[in-house]
Design brief:
Elements: H1 4-7, E1 11-14, H2 22-31, H3 33-36, E2 41-45, H4 47-57, E3 63-65, H5 72-75, E4 80-84, H6 101-116, E5 123-124, H7 130-135, H8 143-151, E6 161-165, E7 170-173, H9 183-186, H10 189-207, E8 213-217, H11 232-246, E9 250-255, H12 263-266, E10 271-274, H13 277-288, E11 293-297, E12 303-306, H14 323-342
Parallel strand pairs: 1-2, 1-5, 2-4, 3-4, 5-12, 7-10, 8-9, 8-10
Antiparallel strand pairs: 6-7, 6-11, 11-12
Helix pairs in contact: 10-11
């Protein structure tokens, strides 16, 4: 059984883009910590940003600047613990600032280091604006790929898998942040089989599903219609499913994506494996827009995130809902507890 000490470690929450709604929803989640039973977290970022945003939102949110993340749980009942990383100066809500890029990336790097050292139970990331980071030389397609690069030795990088988790659907895109026209060329038998295997392992380890049922979507309309609408299902996807089944995994398909997400279909599987970003995220956000959580599987630590962006137009207005972040914090804690119980 896991020790009480390990389960009481806090979650490491990154600040995200400080001009976006990350500070708003972090403050919002802290404000309802008792009513919602939010697990203890430490925010890694600039205390000045949080103080200014709390003032703009009219929130009474006392901060506790801590020197070590381990101080967080004892401070959390009465104040929001902040592990300080200073930003470029004044941050204006809703106004993206390329000068904030080092604050954003250093917050992520610190959270990963704390999780890998065992000081944090998990990493929970607030939304980032990749356009802001690209302008400052960020070399990764997105959050998921950056975390993978930080997480492991360069000679054997992990295979990160994005899984969207909601009350009635878990969905995994095989390809993520790439243009749609590039998807067919990126899909390989090995990539699909690896994504299926990583998803199955994550569902076992973190969600307690002993034998996950995985439904695999086709790429083309009608799943290719026996090759008349495309050969990817016949030549790539079906062989990948066969490879997964040879490993003892319960993977089936490929299925037409347009019949995979109604109520009766979702009852037949534990997660949907989709071929590209919007094939997974469009049905998922239709079903779980407010409470959806983004989980990255395949890393050597737990990572969750709200399933939405920076929403610059809402920053500082009081209109941003903390619901997805609250669910991300709760899910990170639950995944940590389940992993610790298995250890």
């Amino acid at each position: 059984m896991a020790s009480i000490e390990r389960l009481e470690r806090p979650l490491a929450l990154t600040i995200g883009d400080p001009a976006g709604i990350g500070p708003d929803i972090a403050l919002g989640a802290f404000a309802v910590r008792k009513r919602e039973q939010v697990p203890a977290f430490v925010l890694i970022g600039d205390p000045a940003v949080l103080t200014a945003r709390a003032r703009a939102l009219g929130l009474d949110a006392p901060l506790a600047v801590v020197a070590e993340i381990g101080e967080g749980p004892s401070r959390f009942p009465d104040a929001l613990p902040v592990l300080p990383i200073l930003g470029p100066g004044e941050i204006v809500a809703g106004r993206p600032d390329r000068g904030a890029a080092p604050l954003i990336t250093r917050s992520i790097e610190r959270a990963v280091a704390l999780a890998e050292a065992g000081a944090a139970r998990a990493v929970v990331t607030n939304p980032i604006a990749k356009s802001v980071l690209y302008g400052a030389g960020f070399a990764f397609p997105g959050h998921t790929e950056y975390l993978a690069a930080l997480a492991a030795p360069k000679e054997k990088p992990p295979h990160p898998v994005m899984m969207l988790v909601g009350p009635s659907l878990k969905a995994v895109p095989v390809t993520i942040h790439v243009p749609l026209k590039e998807v067919p060329g990126l899909l390989t038998r090995a990539l699909i089989a690896k994504t299926i295997a990583t998803t199955a392992e994550g569902l076992k380890r973190y969600f307690g599903i002993a034998r996950p049922r995985l439904a695999v979507a086709g790429l083309n309309p009608h799943a290719g219609e026996d090759g008349s609408m495309g050969r990817e299902e016949t030549d790539i996807i079906a062989p990948a499913i066969a490879d997964a089944r040879a490993l003892g995994l319960d993977a089936t398909g490929p299925y037409p994506a347009d019949t995979m997400f109604h109520d009766a279909a979702r009852a037949t599987y534990d997660a949907a494996i989709c071929m590209y970003h919007d094939q997974a995220l469009a049905p998922f956000k239709t079903l779980a827009f407010e409470e959806g959580v983004n989980v990255t599987l395949g890393l050597p630590f737990i990572r969750t995130s709200p399933d939405h962006g920076t929403a610059f137009a809402l920053a500082g207005t009081g209109k941003a809902s903390p619901r997805s972040l609250i669910e991300a914090l709760k899910l990170a804690a639950a995944m940590s507890a389940r992993a610790e119980a298995r250890a």
